[in-house]
């Protein structure tokens, strides 16, 4: 593999890729600068191993920072090697995977190193929406380097040794690492929206391999990424009992019960991830009101409302799917918006992002209503009016402006309780019934929960050849 096969950076590549598939590029590159005693320092591969290999037979390009060489710091040639990997990956239409373990910018190279940072950022921006970008943080990733995982499509952090930060915990006024380690994997995973998962190195390698097998190789590749051996008409008997846990519902309808969740610790009230339907990769966005553990016990519960974090998480995921022509399935169960002072600061902007993401996406879009949906929140969650191609609903859900009793109380304020109760029943039948919504064309079909899988398979099969052109514009502004 390399002239330094024993280094940790090289070992990580070997553990990720198919056996003996890695071909190193630029192994003889060393630091060009000789300032500040660099001429006396050995810099093999200039602190980063780059090349290409295979994951389950599919081509990927890889770079892995070597912390044993100048602490893995980024200098001129180090950055050029990473930029070169991106150039080759875009030519070949293959994903880029980066392993970050770096003390930051190389001080001895100053502006040359700064220019190197800019080159990496520029290549990531060029590659965005063209090839999947995946990174894993196994050591330090601070300051300007933290932009790299933020620009990647998917990022993972080693739970014990991985550190991601813009400012170190001790540099934040009033804070110390002992008080709140803002660089820790757990904090970054739950608070920033950058991290898709944390774990041991081996767990992260397994997640990356699974992710690569699910994703198209580039933005022009097919979304049929595997063969289906699962029964396309398989009944999902327990769907109704677990309707609050979107993670369970998505796993239940997917081929072989495969569900790859993204940003799993962030905004848990909104679930995003990938499922397979008859071998086709489908992106899923779902409201979540309950989380169950492996034993079936409820461990978390959320209101059926949209939150700022949940909207941002879903919008970013939909944008990725749209860029790579991955169909989108939404599961809607939402009755309003988070009501608190903190949410009010960001919620409207986040709602706009999510609305724009659904409305502007040209990929096949299917909405499945699994719980009550009320008000404009239900529109934002992929209603027909903002572009859903097909809308399905389970038979016992409510679809309307608001809960019937609340509506009757507003419309007949001051009337007796009997009158309000009577009008609430009328409103429920005329305005909140799923059948009423179906009669108006807002719901295409009412399906039984156990039949969900076969209808979703059929829907996306039919929509596979969808083509849609919008008005000419350079890009949107959200």
From TrEMBL:
Per the UniProt record, one Pfam family is: Carboxyl_trans
Residue stretches making up the CoA carboxyltransferase C-terminal domain: 231-470
Q: Which InterPro entries match?
A: AccD/PCCB, AcCoA_carboxyl_beta, ClpP/crotonase-like_dom_sf, COA_CT_C, COA_CT_N
User: Which key words are in the record?
Assistant: Transferase
Q: Which Gene3D superfamilies match?
A: 2-enoyl-CoA Hydratase, Chain A, domain 1 (3.90.226.10)
Instruction: List residues of the CoA carboxyltransferase N-terminal domain.
Output: 1-234
Q: Which GO terms describe its molecular function?
A: transferase activity
Kindly list the residue ranges recorded as spanning the membrane: none
What is the name of this protein? Carboxyl transferase
């Amino acid at each position: 593999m390399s002239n330094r096969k024993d280094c940790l950076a090289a070992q990580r590549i070997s553990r990720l890729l198919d056996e003996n598939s890695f071909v190193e590029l630029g192994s003889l590159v060393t630091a060009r600068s000789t300032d500040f005693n660099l001429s006396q320092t050995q810099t093999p591969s200039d602190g980063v191993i780059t090349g290409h290999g295979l994951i389950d037979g599919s081509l990927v390009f890889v770079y892995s920072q070597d912390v044993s060489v100048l602490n893995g710091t980024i200098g001129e040639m180090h950055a050029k090697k990473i930029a070169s990997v991106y150039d080759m990956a875009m030519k070949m239409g293959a994903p880029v995977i980066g392993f970050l373990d770096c003390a930051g910018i190389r001080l001895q190279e100053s502006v040359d190193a700064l220019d190197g940072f800019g080159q990496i950022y520029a290549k990531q921006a060029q590659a965005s929406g063209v090839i999947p970008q995946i990174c894993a943080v196994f050591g330090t990733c601070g300051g300007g380097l933290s932009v790299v995982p933020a620009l990647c499509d998917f990022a993972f952090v080693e739970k014990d040794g991985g550190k991601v930060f813009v400012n170190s915990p001790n540099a934040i006024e009033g804070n110390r690492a002992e008080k709140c380690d803002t660089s820790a994997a757990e904090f970054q995973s739950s608070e920033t929206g950058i991290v898709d998962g944390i774990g041991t190195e081996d767990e992260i390698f397994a997640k990356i391999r699974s992710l690569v097998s699910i994703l198209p190789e580039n933005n022009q590749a097919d979304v049929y990424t595997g063969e289906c051996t699962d029964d396309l008409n398989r009944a999902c008997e327990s769907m109704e009992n677990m309707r609050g846990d979107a993670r369970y519902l998505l796993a239940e309808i997917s081929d072989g019960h495969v569900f790859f969740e993204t940003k799993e610790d962030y905004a848990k009230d909104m679930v995003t991830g990938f499922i397979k339907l008859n071998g086709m990769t489908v992106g899923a966005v779902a409201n979540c009101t309950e989380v169950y553990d492996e034993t079936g016990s409820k461990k978390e519960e959320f209101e059926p409302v949209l939150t700022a974090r949940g909207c941002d998480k879903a919008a970013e995921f939909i944008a990725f799917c749209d860029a790579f022509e991955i169909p989108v399935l939404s599961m809607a169960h939402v009755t309003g918006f988070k009501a608190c002072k903190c949410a009010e600061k960001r919620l409207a902007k986040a709602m706009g992002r999510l609305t724009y993401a659904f409305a502007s996406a040209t990929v096949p879009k299917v909405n499945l209503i699994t719980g009550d949906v009320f008000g404009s929140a239900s529109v934002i969650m992929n209603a027909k009016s903002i572009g859903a191609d097909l809308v399905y609903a389970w038979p016992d859900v409510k679809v309307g402006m608001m809960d019937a009793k609340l509506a009757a109380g507003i419309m007949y304020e001051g009337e007796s309780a009997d009158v309000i109760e009577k009008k609430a029943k009328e409103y429920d039948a005329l305005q909140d019934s799923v059948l009423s919504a179906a009669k108006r064309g807002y719901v295409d079909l009412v399906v039984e929960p156990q039949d969900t899988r076969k209808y979703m398979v059929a829907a996306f099969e039919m929509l596979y050849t969808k083509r849609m052109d919008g008005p000419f514009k350079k890009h949107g502004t959200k």
